[in-house]
Amino acid sequence: MGQGCTRRSGARAKVCLLLGLLVLGLLWSKPARAAAPFTLDESEGQPGVVVYPAQVPGVRRVTVLLHGMCGEPANACSHFAEQVTKSEHLICPRASRRCDGGGSTWPQKGFEDQIERAVLRAQAALGQGVDESHGRTLIGYSLGAFRALELAQHGAGRYPRVMLIGAKVLPSLKLLRQNGVERLLLSAGSWDMMSQHMQRETARLGRGGFTTRFLGLGPVGHGFTPSLQVYLPTALGWLNEPASTSNG
Questions:
Q1: What is the pTM of this model?
Q2: Nearest 10 degrees: CA dihedral of 119, 120, 121, 122?
Q3: What is the CATH classification number for the domain harbouring 189?
């Protein structure tokens, strides 16, 4: 372009100038980078929480993920972050009880308040970019799935979309409906001992007219593997379908 533009004048010179400015603009401009995840440690009674901001700007909904027994929130959420943050913020509360061998676990009582305070703390850190008008998505794994179910079944509409992974849960059709849960996805690997039970529970809820589905995670056991990335788009897509969509 340099030789073709050096001897041009008039309209052609203006075109060359515009092309030059465009090239410089492309060279100088940098693509927007997703905000880095951050951790809010426990302090003065405040619960710990790991936050993965959405990759896209604007006001975004949140997904809350509860890790398993003696797990770390960052470890569990790292398997979900890439997919979830394409459209939402991912908030990962830390369980309150530390395990001797590392990680944390959820108590039987009092976890609801702890989780809610962790979510509110994360939302405050995210600022004005949080949309609560359509409720939150809730994901629970293993022991976290039991706590997530309790949270949803007494959540007064906070969690209309729920995914439970690898747990012998017994959802209450009555409580789900009373507390505004619109969609419940049960999920497990085919080698997970919970798989058959969760499939039976899915069928039971479906017979009651509830919008539910079982999603198999392939030939894996009770743990996360890289293959989870294959199934997450299906899981998140189904959870985010309109509530009026039929079972399936």
A1: 0.84
A2: 50
A3: 3.40.50.1820
